[in-house]
């Protein structure tokens, strides 16, 4: 199988059986990767897993497949989305007034409730048999929180997927030069990007330190991110879709951190996955043996 070959791993009958039970409509590369990871973790699953990658990289799809593949091997994985921990719109509007107008737009570091995220991760991992927990839900169409969903324990692992999972702050000198029109026209004084950087060094870093295992889906470039994000928009209700110009403007909020992750996250990821222009897996590498921080 392609993914096992790229990873230098042997493809086993158990992996074939696991992949055969996964959603046949999902990308074949991602199904294979999910089966490979379930096989890697079957003896000793990491307690907290991070799944990172630029917008449109397929994190939600892969997270769902990983949970299904692990279930087939007797492991229960609870998938959490970083998106569900966005601050409510009212909070982001207060941030916009107090700190910088760009903070009303969800997505960049500084717009998530990371204290709540860390607490939920711990609570999910400690659930006993049959114990339930309500998890927050964010509605992107409303651009606000909407209700909750219930999960029941126990879980062997918690997987947190999100575009900036694992991202680190940049050096001060890198912040000085704007990288796109949004930064040039809306953040000329660097207040917004320095606030984002400060948050990456603080509450975001504290959250990433909880992770025992990090998977990074590396996008080819920002053009691919824009193209994939526009494809995602076509799947949303027509009255909630963003057009090409709106997607381009929205993606600029994420550009600096996405590019920094592409430069710096590969050596730190336990599994680095290179994505091709057609969204397929072009390469991958494991970074040493995983040692759980929770045992």
Strand and helix map with partners:
Blueprint: H1 2-7, H2 13-20, H3 28-41, E1 48-53, H4 59-72, E2 77-81, H5 89-98, H6 114-125, E3 132-139, E4 144-152, E5 157-162, H7 172-175, H8 181-186, H9 191-208, E6 213-218, H10 222-233, H11 244-264, E7 271-275, E8 281-286
Parallel strand pairs: 1-5, 1-6, 2-5, 6-7
Antiparallel strand pairs: 3-4, 7-8
Helix pairs in contact: 2-3, 3-4, 10-11
Provide a descriptive summary of the structure in words:
With 295 residues, the chain is an alpha/beta fold. The chain has one domain (2-80, 158-286). The chain has helices at residues 2-7, 13-20, 28-41, 59-72, 89-98, 114-125, 172-175, 181-186, 191-208, 222-233, 244-264; strands at 48-53, 77-81, 132-139, 144-152, 157-162, 213-218, 271-275, 281-286. Mean pLDDT is 93; it is low at 289-295.
Secondary structure tally, helices: 11
Structural class: alpha/beta
Which band does the percent of strand residues land in? 15-25%
Number of strands: 8
Overall, the morphology is globular
Averaged pLDDT: 93
Write down the domain tally. Answer: 1
Regions with little confidence, pLDDT below 50 for 5+ residues? 289-295
> What distance lies between the first and last C-alpha atoms, to the nearest angstrom?
33 Å
Largest sheet: 6 strands, mixed
If strands are numbered along the chain, what order do they take across the biggest sheet? 2-5-1-6-7-8
- Helical content stands at 40-55%
């Amino acid at each position: 199988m392609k993914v096992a070959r790229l990873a230098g791993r042997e493809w086993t009958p158990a992996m074939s059986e696991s992949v055969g039970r996964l959603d046949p409509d999902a990308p074949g590369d991602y199904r294979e990767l999910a089966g490979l990871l379930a096989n890697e973790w079957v003896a000793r699953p990491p307690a907290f897993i991070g799944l990172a990658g630029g917008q449109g990289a397929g994190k939600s799809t892969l997270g769902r497949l990983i949970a299904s593949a692990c279930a087939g091997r007797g492991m229960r994985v609870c998938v959490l989305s970083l998106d569900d921990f966005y601050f409510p719109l009212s909070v982001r509007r207060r941030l916009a007034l107090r700190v910088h107008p760009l903070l009303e737009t969800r997505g960049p570091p500084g717009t998530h409730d990371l204290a709540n995220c860390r607490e939920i991760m711990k609570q999910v991992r400690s659930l006993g048999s049959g114990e339930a927990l309500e998890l927050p839900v964010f509605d992107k169409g409303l651009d606000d929180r909407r209700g909750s969903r219930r999960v029941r324990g126990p879980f062997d692992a918690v997987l947190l997927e999100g575009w900036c999972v694992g991202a680190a702050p940049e050096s001060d000198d890198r912040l000085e030069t704007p990288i796109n029109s949004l930064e040039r026209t809306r953040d000329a004084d660097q207040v917004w990007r320095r606030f984002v950087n400060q948050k990456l060094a603080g509450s975001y870093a504290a959250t990433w330190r909880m992770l025992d295992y990090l998977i990074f889906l590396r996008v080819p470039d920002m053009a691919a991110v824009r193209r994939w994000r526009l494809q995602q928009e076509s799947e949303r209700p027509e009255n909630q879709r963003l057009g090409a110009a709106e997607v381009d403007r929205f993606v600029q909020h994420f550009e600096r951190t996405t590019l920094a992750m592409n430069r710096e996250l590969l050596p730190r990821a336990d599994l680095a996955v290179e994505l091709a222009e057609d969204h397929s897996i072009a390469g991958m590498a494991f970074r040493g043996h995983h040692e759980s921080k929770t045992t």
